[in-house]
Amino acid sequence: MSASTSESHIKASTRTEFGKGAARRARRDGQIPAVIYGHGNDPVHITLPSHQTTMAIKHLGANAVLDLTVDGAESLALVKAIQVDPIKRVIEHIDFVVVIKGEKVTVDVPVLTVGDAEKGTLVQIENNTISLEAEATHIPESVEVDIEGLKAGTQILASQLVLPKGSTLLADADLLIINVTGEVEADLGEIAEVEGEEGESAEAASE
Fold first, then answer.
1. What does the pLDDT look like over 116-152, one tens digit per residue?
2. For residue 36, how many other CB atoms are within 10 A of its CB?
3. What average pLDDT score do residues 93-108 get?
4. Residues paired with residue 33 on neighbouring β-strands, in sequence order
5. 186-198 CB burial, b ≥16 within 10 A, e <16
6. Range of the domain at 162
């Protein structure tokens, strides 16, 4: 992930009005209220163009780094928290953290599986994200785990993940990420056994 893409360059405006009423007015005007923290500076309250910002975050994915211009000054800002309207599903507020090119940041990156485990197995992703340290302008979009042909009983720990170049694992090395079980067959067998017992009980009760 990089802040060099054109979608990541966004012009913001300093926010002078605060409170729920001001936030609603900003959203009505097609703006997203936001705040920028970091590097010992006082928080900077801003508004961002809603459509452009939403599309940039969708394109860049989790841990998006945007190149914000606020009152003529440019800064790289990492998305740390997003508030979304539960009904309209639009972004209501964003928290950013200022980052400097080349510095390392701590992020939670999604875990994605690639391939298919052995037939009849159940693949459980025990942890959907993994905590990493990565360069602010090169945050990986995801960590892929190859599960092709894995057998029941296979477990993949955080220490076994193949991390993107430049990333360092921060999570516990023994953290369970993927657990492959034979529960599909076991569950079907248990259901058949229970149904058989219920059928026998019903027959006995009718005699």
1. 999 999 999 999 999 999 998 889 989 999 999 999 9
2. 22
3. 91
4. 47
5. eeeeeeeeeeeee
6. 106-186
Q: How many domains does the chain have?
A: 2
By DSSP bridging, strand 65-70 and strand 91-99 are: unpaired
What's the pTM? 0.70
Tokens of 81: 């928290």
Domain match, 13 and 93 both: yes
CA torsion, ordered 141, 147, 153, 159, to nearest 10 deg: -40
Q: Per the structure block, which two tokens stand in for 204?
A: 């006995």
Give the residue from 168, 109, 106, 102 showing the smallest Cα distance to 142. 109
Query: SS3 string of 49-95?
Result: EHHHHHHHHHHHCCCCEEEEEECCEEEEEEEEEEEECCCCCCEEEEE
Do the domain assignments include residue 194? no
